[in-house]
Amino acid sequence: MNTSQNGSLQDAISNLTKQFRANIQTYAIIVALIFIWILFSMLTGGLYLSPQNFSNLFRQMTVTSFLACGMVLVIVTGNIDLSVGKLAGFVSVVVAAFQANIWTRVFPGHEATTTALSILIGLGVGLLVGVLQGYVISYLSVPSFIVTLGVQWILNGGILLVTQGKTIPANQPQLSWVAQGYLPPTIGWIAAAGVVALLFYTMVSNRQKKRRYGFELAPLRSDIFKTTLYAILVVAYVAIVNFYNGIQIPVLLLAITTVVMSYVSNNTRFGRYAYAIGGNREAARLSGVNINKNIFGIFVLMGFLCGVAGVVLASYVGYGTIAAGGGYELDAIASCILGGTSTLGGEGTVFGMIIGSMIMASLTNGLQMLNVQAAWQYVVKGIVLILAVYTDVYFKKNR
Fold first, then answer.
1. Residue 392 CB: number of other CB atoms within 10 A?
2. What CA–CA distance (Å, rounded) separates 59 from 124?
3. Type and span of the H or E element at 209
4. Which fold has domain 25-181+251-371?
5. Long-range contact list for 121-125, CB < 8 A, 24+ apart?
6. Where are the domains of the chain?
7. Among 185, 182, 194, which residue's Cα sits nearest to residue 238?
8. CA pair distance 101, 118, nearest whole angstrom
9. pLDDT tens digit string along 301-328?
10. Can you name the residues that pair with 182 across neighbouring β-strands?
């Protein structure tokens, strides 16, 4: 009996060790995030983790995270998109221009209609640019670095043409609600209960699928522990933000986008082909993967998510400006790399990207609260990015 128990204990320890080694980068960035929160909380006398700042922190990361959701698959395939920041900025000024200068004349007094139309146009602009870029990159075989760099310049010119060097107001109440609104606390708790139920349902469903197809199952205790931990984090988040004004609308939209993108990347042919292309392009081609079609679809999806980010940006800032979207592409790329997306392609997760995006937002928010000069903020984020890339290369080389 003792021998059997010892054997079970050793197996459990062995499984935990294997899981830890396989996910060491993920655990490392989670530890880094917790360290950053504790450090800034100490330096700001606890204000950093106050309900108000905690709520603002999550809201501030949404625009970058929408862009990074699409960027994960772009980088996984071995490509890059340098235009996402300016595309989001261009969408934001187009939305602001339609809101301020066009719809008020065409549909005076119909704010709900004008807001809906502006959002649809913003999404359409992002989608159109994604289609054009995707076609040139995938079917005309022009390197993504060159195409997206060129489009970045074009969009920068487009922003100047639309704004005419002036700030365009986009602070209409219903449009502002998209990025500045909150869910009532009661609805927030109902949403939290739904997410917790979904987490446990997903755990049970995944175990059943693995058993059905003969895959090795992790210990039930391990799956229950991880799912319970995620559930506790969800409940804790809702409890904290409810002390302020409730769950932020853009964070809810980001959560839905994250779940959808995670499912697409892990459970669909489209997503799995992206990893196959990034892992070994020639092997993927010989296996029958339509590489051009897949990469085209990824850039179209990236364009759509830029449209979403642009709408949220216009709503969050309340204006369309000549500097709209500047630097967001670097934050999006950094978020992906910090979250474990390999610069060499073939590896990366949406969940890891969210942690990476949270680290970038946490650094920016904390440094701003400490009144650190903007120049030094760039220096710190640059150092963090270089260390993240070095860590990725180090672990990949050792594996």
1. 20
2. 24
3. helix 185-212
4. ABC transporter involved in vitamin B12 uptake, BtuC (1.10.3470)
5. 121/94, 121/95, 122/91, 122/92, 122/94, 122/95, 122/307, 122/310, 122/311, 122/314, 123/304, 123/307, 123/308, 123/311, 124/307, 125/90, 125/91, 125/94, 125/307, 125/310
6. 25-181+251-371, 182-247
7. 185
8. 11
9. 999 999 999 999 999 988 888 888 888 9
10. 248
- Strand-pair partners of 320: 168
**Tokens found for residue 267:** 């459970």
Task: Tell me which residue of 313, 272, 360 sits closest to 176, measured CA to CA.
Answer: 313
Quickly tell me which residue has 């021998």 as its tokens. 3
**Distance, CA of 144 to chain centre:** 20
Residue stretches of the chain with pLDDT short of 50:
1
Sign of CA pseudo-dihedral 142, 144, 149, 150: positive
Question: Mapping DSSP to helix (H, G, I), strand (E, B) and coil, where does residue 322 land?
Answer: coil
- Kindly compute the dihedral angle of the four CA atoms of residues 283, 285, 291, 293, in this order, to the nearest 10 degrees: -140
What whole-number distance in Å separates Cα of residue 356 and Cα of residue 25?
11
Cα 23 off chain centre by? 19
Q: Is the pTM of this model over 0.85?
A: yes
The fraction of the chain above a pLDDT of 90, given in percent, is 33
